[in-house]
Each structure stands twice: as C-alpha cells, then as structure tokens.
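Complex record, two chains
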Amino acid sequence: QQQVKQSPQSLIVQKGGISIINCAYENTAFDYFPWYQQFPGKGPALLIAIRPDVSEKKEGRFTISFNKSAKQFSLHIMDSQPGDSATYFCAAMVVGAGSYQLTFGKGTKLSVIP
Amino acid sequence: ETGVTQTPRHLVMGMTNKKSLKCEQHLGHNAMYWYKQSAKKPLELMFVYNFKEQTENNSVPSRFSPECPNSSHLFLHLHTLQPEDSALYLCASSQAQGATNEKLFFGSGTQLSVL
C-alpha cells in the first residue's frame, strides 16, 4: 500500500512538445505529492508539489494535475526543452505523521530532442 | 549547489574494506537523511536523524552504520559490504522532520562500487 507507481519508464519528446508523466498511489492517507528532477551526476531537486485540496498547480511550464478519486497525479511539461532532459521522480507522503518518509516512484527518464 | 555536500563522489571498495561516506549541510537544517538509489528502483530511505537523534532505520543491514555528531554532519560507515550494495548513496536534509516545509535538499551523492 506504500507503493507509488510511475509511468512511463522513459520518454522521448520533440522540442516544443508536451511531456506527460503519470503516477498512481494506493495509500489514501498520502497528502503531499512532490515531483523531483534529477540531472546526471546530481541529486534530485524539488521541482513542484501539490496537496490534495487542489486539482492542479502550475509553475511556469510545469503543471501537476491531481485526481483524488482516481488516486492519480501527473506532471505536464509544456513547450519541452532539451534542458528539461532529466529523470523525474514522483513521490508521496503523509505530512505530520511523525515520520518524514517520502515514497518515491521508480523514475522517468525524459529525453527532449531538438 | 544545494548546500548539501557529499564526499567522496566516487568510491570503489572490496568486500572486506571499511570506509565512510561523509555529508555536510550548510542550510541550518535539523533533519538529515541517507537514501540509496539503485538503477530502475525507487529511492530507498535508509536512515533519518532529527535533531541528531536517529528516528528511522528502515531495516537496513548492520553493515551500514550511520553517525550524526551534530545537525550539520552525517556519516555512513560501511564494512563488509556485498556487491549488491553498489549504488548511489544520497544524503539529504530538511528543516526538521515532520515540519510543514517538507522540502528535501539532496547532495550529489557518492557512487559506490563494491568489488
């Protein structure tokens, strides 16, 4: 029940296109859903996050869509650029449960080709 | 630069060696974490320290031994490792465990190869 399932494993998108990465979870107690971006040779860095009280959050070209009833959330990258090429991880956790444990997905390797 | 520094960046060790990974954060955070990152697997939380006290140990084998002398430094002592322990070991910090600001700051990791 702690799993977060992420798809696809890899994604190739043309420059200017839309990149979409999907995640699904089972634990209905999760109430914080961040996305992390990792470039080769670097650690993951927080990209954007959402709480379940909203269905969408947008920051620049990055948007999280959240469907509470379906227990799914997705990352959309609009106007994808070669510099967006990285591995993206979705994650989920229960805030304030006395234990800070992010459950991560397996990651999606995004390649944006010129 | 995230403010979390890990050394060494790369480490090759034999199964009988003893080595240590070091992490230092310059962010004034009170919680520090060790994660293991293996290919095609989710990041695995290994240990959590909150205000220098260990609060999580996710069933990690005893050949991994963490140490947190203060809120800014975290070590992972390694001994008699197995080849399957080869992975990227990531250190992270946050303001405090369970705080409303849940942002984790990761270091660049130590790529460990066990021969």
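Note: Chain B has a mean pLDDT of 90.
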